[in-house]
Recover the amino acids of this structure.
């Protein structure tokens, strides 16, 4: 008998769930979280493209970054925008559903259908809000593994993701090495740096400073901390772009005016752009989820979880790794990818590493980067040949 | 991987022939990955590469080879002892900052090391320096003195002497002529007539 997850779905969640798959898990065996709480039942919302082959050898898990979700390669049910990794995933693309069974799972704590802070606590039947347990990247991966068990998928041909998705890839390889044939962590790090945490903290403080946040109980008060969330998004968005990209795109160009306004309207195009980024973000993202997911990233420290030695996380790893970084990414600079490569070498793991020349900053991994596509396509070709995948 | 691989350079072929099938090899300074591809495809070797130039690395990975961007002088230290059956350094030793340390690291990381390098005591080099009075430029040393990456050139005899000093056992030494064909000569003549050499080494 399937138990219900207690919740009051938001409009966005309702639309998302109508367009993707879902599973209720943790009914008999709750999910043991890093913080000690046992979570269950919980819902996992996910999307798939392509077909699992008879040998179950062509499954590819795509791990989404902070503000993306399971709608990798299709029109988004809330925003109507193209899939966030349309450039990479789709017919004739590097990750072609004709060849692979592609799965993307909305992470635990998120707000596109998977259980997060907006669900209700079973014991009290009250919304969790800030009482929702703090989840970690490892918890997200545990929940993903539980879904794969549920789908009877023993292992993955490849786990791939960028940014927070890359953190999940690393966690997958460290926690379930036998289930990961190949791993592609892109534009990420084995831990969040002080600077990364600092930017996230600014975002969280912006949300919590919004009077409409109401200590996290905004839905109870029928309010929405949209201004705080928008500022959080604006700050984060700057970290996704390079200085050159901002300069090239906007420079000091004025927005719809010929002269400075001597006021605090959006005089400059870059201001208008950021305001737009902020205001559209609040339509699809939940403020509490933003707190939880950024926290999960801050807590990520793979070396810390393995006695302070990153190489220990990959000891005896049978996985084939391909890491990629981008020259102008200052949020997850190449140096941090190189640290992972060194640890993998120390563990004598099979690793490739490419630094892609791009001036588009951290966001480059989401954009049309032919060098990244070529690298990935070559790596997957080699891995497929090693796996005997036709 | 495709079954058709373009024929590889004669000196690389010679190195490939020294590698037993089925083992693990690291090619340091693997360039465009020609040797790696050969070892993977025809010798079933678990072959990895390290290359300084980003363009070389990207080309290798795009061809399905396991290659990282790295520097022989600094990045061999990251590997554990005995990680590979062979560590290969072809035509790169003379461009390293600390050739002695690189050799030491190679034989720590690998059970065997295969090293090839141009011979600075080749008769053409000697002639150009003695009678031309200019820094020698030859087929295997094509650079001008001011733009050469080769900062630690040595002769075949120099290399043998260093191996002796470091307690490295020379398992095989092959001297190549100008067309990269092996020539069988006593050591003294080899040091004069060999344009390059390939050594297979192991810890004593």
């Amino acid at each position: 008998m399937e138990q219900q997850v207690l919740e009051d779905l938001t409009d966005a969640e309702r639309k998302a769930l109508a367009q993707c798959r879902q599973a209720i898990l943790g009914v008999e065996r709750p999910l043991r979280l890093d913080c000690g709480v046992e979570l269950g039942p919980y819902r996992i919302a996910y999307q798939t493209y392509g077909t699992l082959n008879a040998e179950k050898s062509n499954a590819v898990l795509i791990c989404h970054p902070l503000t993306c979700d399971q709608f990798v390669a299709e029109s988004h049910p809330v925003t109507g925008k193209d899939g966030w990794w349309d450039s990479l995933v789709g017919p004739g693309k590097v990750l072609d559903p004709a060849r692979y069974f592609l799965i993307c799972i909305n992470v635990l704590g998120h707000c596109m259908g998977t259980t997060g802070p907006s669900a209700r606590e079973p014991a009290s039947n009250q919304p969790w809000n800030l009482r929702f347990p703090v989840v970690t990247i490892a918890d997200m991966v545990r929940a993903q593994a539980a879904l794969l068990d549920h789908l009877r998928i023993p292992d993955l041909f490849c786990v791939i993701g960028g940014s927070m998705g890359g953190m999940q890839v690393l966690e997958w390889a460290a926690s379930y090495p036998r289930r990961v044939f190949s791993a592609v962590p892109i534009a990420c790090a084995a831990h969040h740096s002080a600077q990364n945490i600092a930017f996230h903290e600014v975002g969280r403080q912006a949300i919590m400073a919004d009077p409409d946040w109401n200590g996290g109980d905004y839905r109870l008060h029928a309010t929405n901390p949209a201004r705080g969330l928008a500022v959080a998004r604006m700050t984060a968005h700057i970290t996704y772009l390079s200085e050159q990209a901002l300069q090239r795109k906007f420079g000091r160009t004025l927005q719809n005016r010929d002269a400075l306004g001597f006021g605090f309207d959006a005089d400059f195009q870059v201001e208008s752009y950021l305001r737009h980024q902020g205001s559209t973000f609040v339509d699809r993202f939940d403020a509490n989820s933003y707190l939880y997911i950024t926290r999960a990233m801050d807590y990520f420290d793979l070396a810390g979880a393995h006695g302070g030695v990153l190489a220990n996380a990959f000891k005896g790893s049978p996985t084939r790794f391909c890491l990629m970084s981008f020259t102008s990414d200052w949020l997850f600079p190449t140096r941090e990818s190189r640290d992972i490569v060194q640890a993998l070498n120390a563990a004598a793991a099979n690793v490739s590493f490419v630094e892609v020349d791009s001036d588009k900053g951290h966001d480059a991994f989401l954009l049309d980067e032919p060098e990244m596509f070529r690298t990935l396509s070559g790596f997957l070709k080699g891995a497929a040949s090693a796996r005997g995948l036709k | 991987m495709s079954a058709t691989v373009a024929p590889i350079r004669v000196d690389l072929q010679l190195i490939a022939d020294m590698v037993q099938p089925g083992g693990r090899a690291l090619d340091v300074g693997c360039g465009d990955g020609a040797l790696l591809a050969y070892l993977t495809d025809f010798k079933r070797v678990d072959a990895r590469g390290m290359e300084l130039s980003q363009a070389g690395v990207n080309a290798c990975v795009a061809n399905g080879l396991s290659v990282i961007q790295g520097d022989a002088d600094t990045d061999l230290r990251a590997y554990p002892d005995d990680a590979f059956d062979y560590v290969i350094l072809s035509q790169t030793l003379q461009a390293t900052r600390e050739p002695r340390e690189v050799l030491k690291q190679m034989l720590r990381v690998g059970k065997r090391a295969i090293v090839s390098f141009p011979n600075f005591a080749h008769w053409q080099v000697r002639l150009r320096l003695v009678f031309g009075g200019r820094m020698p430029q030859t087929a295997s040393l094509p650079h001008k003195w001011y733009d050469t990456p080769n900062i630690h050139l040595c002769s075949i005899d120099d290399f043998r002497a260093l191996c002796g000093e470091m307690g490295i056992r020379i398992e095989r030494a092959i001297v190549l002529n100008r067309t990269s064909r092996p020539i069988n000569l006593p050591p003294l003549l080899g040091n004069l007539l060999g344009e390059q050499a390939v050594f297979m080494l192991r810890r004593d």
Notes: The two ends of chain B are 37 Å apart (CA to CA). The beta strands of chain B are 24-28, 46-51, 66-69, 84-90, 110-118, 168-176, 182-183, 196-203.
